[in-house]
Amino acid sequence: MQNSYAANSERGPSVTDQRNRLTIAVIEEPHLFDSGHAILASVFNRWRVSGIMTYGAGRPANATVTGDPNQDGNTGNDRLAGYGRNAFQGPDYATMDLRLVRKIKLWGHYRLELGGDSYNLFNRDNQRYTISDGGFYNSAGQFVKYTQYAGETYYPAYYQRPTSLMKATSAYAPRQVQLSMRLDF
């Protein structure tokens, strides 16, 4: 049961608390061949390569329960017994995105741009979990009341924890590749 007057049970990290995050972005336009190798330079020069690599540690998650264990009439604010606010931590996330672009002069002010993009280049399985009891409620368990009364309160009761607690139920997008062509005039 949650006691709103107990300050320690309400202390915990924010849902946006991510202890480690690293992002590296690179843009490079290599000129591999000089004017002495005109044919090779026309094929291999003027390509632009850019990439973004992101790594982030898991974010905190709150273990809320369905039902109303503290009997305050609000069924959306109670947590699993024995756990403070945002007591669980989700899986980490890492991805590498890459872009390759080549501009080709056509005539006058016309230029053709050919491009290729790859998102999640290394196809990392970035798992995602939801603390859920079937997808409708976002919860780590269910507070089950028996049909016995003690005064006007149901008694006894228990918490039913799902077997899928803290197991990945889905994943972020796998590798995606797109090709593009654009005419600038």
Question: What do you see in this structure?
Answer:
The chain has helices spanning 7-10, 38-44, and strands spanning 21-28, 47-56, 60-61, 65-66, 88-89, 93-105, 111-119, 127-128, 141-145, 149-150, 153-154, 157-160, 170-171, 176-184. The chain is mainly beta. It has a five-stranded antiparallel sheet, with no helix packed on it. A three-stranded mixed sheet has the order 4-9-12, with no helix packed on it. Strand 10 (149-150) and strand 11 form a beta hairpin. Mean pLDDT is 78; it is low at 132-138.
Q: End-to-end span in angstroms?
A: 67 Å
Count every beta strand, where a strand is a DSSP E run of 2 or more residues.
Answer: 14
Most strands sheet: 5 strands, antiparallel
Mean pLDDT: 78
Contiguous helical run count? 2
Instruction: Note the beta-strand portion.
Output: 35-45%
Gyration radius over CA: 27 Å
| Total of domains | 1
Strand ordering within the main sheet = 1-2-6-7-14
Sequence stretches where pLDDT stays below 50 over 5 or more residues:
132-138
Fraction of residues in helix:
under 10%
What would the principal axes of the Cα set say about the shape?
rod-shaped
Helix and strand content put the structural class at mainly beta
